[in-house]
Automatic annotation (TrEMBL):
Organism: Lawsonibacter hominis
Coiled coil regions, renumbered to chain: none
Domain EAL: start-end pairs: 1-254
Residue numbers of the full-length protein present here: 381 to 634 of 641
Protein name per UniProt: EAL domain-containing protein
Length: 254
């Protein structure tokens, strides 16, 4: 409850931050995309976990307001750093079910991108499989608007709960992000390793680009790369970083 009113103040005063976690392409040998992740700091309690404030915000209109604020923040950052945009293919933004089912929200997000003079195709929206499960007319309509505008869709957290063929087929995803929980045990248990490898093969055979999330160790990296995964997001390469640190991490690599 205390966090709820703190959230309200943070929204009114635009006090959220955006961190960026770069995604590495093994084939290209460099970072090719970024995921924007919201951060919030309480003056006395310290950092509030995104799981906590996103969860609370999703219970009301707050999540849509947060989505619009963060969209502006990301656009402002990109506009100020054109050199980053030349290096990176797109930026991934997380969207919640509730905000997508709100009528007019998709159009407002696209409107912000255009207002900043940026290309919609420079963005990719991440939707969690739980979202895709709570399938609705308004969700598919929002997805169609995004695709029409040239915005790509990524199925987030695949394997964390509701992974099945229907979830994958429901919306026009171009990319699928394998949840970090799927990596647990791949180095120790051949069956778990086979499972991960098979999911990668199945999704790639269906035409999806696959991202391995949560890669932390050289051993994990070695395995997923042998299994044909090109896109790697994880602490092995980089944690989520504040804007300035992200710029030096991505631009220094050339
Ligand atoms: O780094 P991490 O703890 O940031 O993120 C936790 C979860 O919070 C992620 O699964 C991510 O999808 C979600 N998340 C982070 N930022 C945002 C945001 O701005 N909007 C939405 N809807 N979800 C977010
Ligand atoms: O939206 P999503 O749940 O995909 O957000 C990614 C989450 O995964 C963020 O909370 C981010 O901080 C976290 N994450 C990214 N890479 C790693 C990693 O290598 N290890 C762990 N433990 N978490 C990671
Ligand atoms: Mn995500
Ligand atoms: Na995820």
């Amino acid at each position: 409850q205390e966090i709820e009113s703190f959230l309200e103040t943070a929204l009114e005063q635009d006090r959220f931050e955006v961190y960026y976690q770069p995604v590495y392409s093994l084939r290209k040998g460099g970072y090719v995309t970024l995921e924007a992740l919201s951060r919030l700091r309480h003056p006395t309690l310290g950092p509030v976990a995104p799981e906590v404030f996103i969860g609370i915000a999703e219970k009301s209109d707050q999540i849509a307001r947060l989505g619009l604020l963060q969209m502006r923040r990301v656009c402002r950052f990109l506009k100020e750093h054109r050199e980053l945009m030349e290096q990176i293919q797109n930026v991934k933004i997380n969207l919640s079910p509730t905000e997508l089912m709100k009528s007019g929200h998709a159009g407002r997000l696209i409107g912000i991108i255009r207002e900043f003079g940026l290309k919609p195709s420079y963005f990719q929206f991440e939707i969690t499989e739980t979202v895709a499960t709570e399938y609705s007319e308004s969700l598919s309509q929002a997805a169609a608007e995004f695709v029409e505008a040239g915005i790509g869709l990524c199925l987030d957290d695949f394997g964390a709960g509701y992974a099945n063929l229907n979830t994958v087929l429901k919306l026009p995803f171009s990319e699928i992000k394998l949840d970090k929980s799927l990596l647990v045990g791949i180095c120790e248990d051949d069956r778990i390793a086979s499972f991960y490898q098979s999911i990668v093969a199945a999704l790639q055979n269906m035409g999806y680009a696959v991202i391995a999330e949560g890669v932390e160790t050289p051993k994990e990296l070695g395995l997923v790369s042998r299994w044909g995964v090109d896109l790697i997001q994880g602490y092995y390469f980089s944690r989520p970083l504040p804007g300035e640190a992200l710029l030096s991490a991505v631009l220094d690599r050339e």
